[in-house]
Amino acid sequence: MILDDLVAATQRRLKKHEAQKSLTELKNEVAHMPAGLKPDFLAVLNEPGLHVISEVKKASPSKGTIVTDFPYLQIAISYDEAGADAISVLTEPDYFNGHLNYLKEISQAVSAPTLRKDFTIDPYMIYEAKANGASIILLIVAIVDDQQLRSYRELAESLGMQAIVEAYTADEVTRALNSGAKIIGINNRNLKDFKVDFQNSLKLRAMVPEGIPVIAESGIKTQADVEVLADAGFNGILMGETLMRSDDKEALIKEFKQAAVK
Ligand SMILES: O=C(O)c1ccccc1NCC(=O)[C@H](O)[C@H](O)COP(=O)(O)O
């Protein structure tokens, strides 16, 4: 199953990273970082409207290579200039062709907060996200236990970051809520078989009580999709492939932001 492969690859990579730089060294690096000046993502999500998180992604397990030309910094800057509320950066190298350096360079170049889009399975990766400029991490409920879900989010918050806690099923939404998640992402993509069902986020939205922002993730393609999600009371959308394939990313983000306020 792909999710198991992704986690196994992450575990192998983690061991290599720890051998190159110890957790103690990484913590020391993070402790000496200057305070960030990025907008507070949770506060932005709590403002009225549907907020756009734009993703920088070269490839994915379901689609293979999405774009061959990948000027990641230029892409991120165009998202930023178009008013993206956050920028998601794939750092997973084996299946998404991502890199931690992309996160670092993009975080330095844009004013929007950045999300380390990866498969967080260890505190080391949370310090690594911080060291490379992320304001937000992703916690996928399906790959951590309840104790990790709570403690990883709390660690991220203690480092001045926020966590999007991602669920795909009703049971996972319940686990996310019970862990004290402050931001919930509902994925339309089943990470076990790649199937994308746009109705999934619409179906589960009502489980999340008022006051906790909810982001719809994956498979969002059209203005009509955005309007439906805005009407359903989502606070944010995460878009990757549609933007990556667009020749005019700035115009598309502006259109989607417009559609969100109609
Ligand atoms: O995209 C995949 O193939 C995939 C497979 C297994 C785990 C995660 C995967 N994608 C990560 C994401 O969730 C998306 O990058 C993100 O939600 C944006 O989705 P999209 O707009 O459909 O590119």
Automatic annotation (TrEMBL):
Its pathway? Amino-acid biosynthesis; L-tryptophan biosynthesis; L-tryptophan from chorismate: step 4/5
Which Pfam families does this chain map to? IGPS
GO annotation (BP), single: L-tryptophan biosynthetic process
Indole-3-glycerol phosphate synthase domain spans which residues? 3-255
Output the superkingdom of the source species: Bacteria
Query: Which reaction is the catalytic activity of this chain?
Result: 1-(2-carboxyphenylamino)-1-deoxy-D-ribulose 5-phosphate + H(+) = (1S,2R)-1-C-(indol-3-yl)glycerol 3-phosphate + CO2 + H2O
Q: Name one GO molecular function term.
A: indole-3-glycerol-phosphate synthase activity
**Matching SUPFAM superfamilies, A to Z?**
Ribulose-phoshate binding barrel (SSF51366)
Q: What is its EC number?
A: 4.1.1.48
Keywords on record? Amino-acid biosynthesis, Aromatic amino acid biosynthesis, Decarboxylase, Lyase, Tryptophan biosynthesis
Q: Which family does it belong to?
A: Belongs to the TrpC family.
Q: What is this protein called?
A: Indole-3-glycerol phosphate synthase
Organism source for this protein? Lentilactobacillus otakiensis DSM 19908 = JCM 15040
Whichever gene encodes this chain, its name is trpC
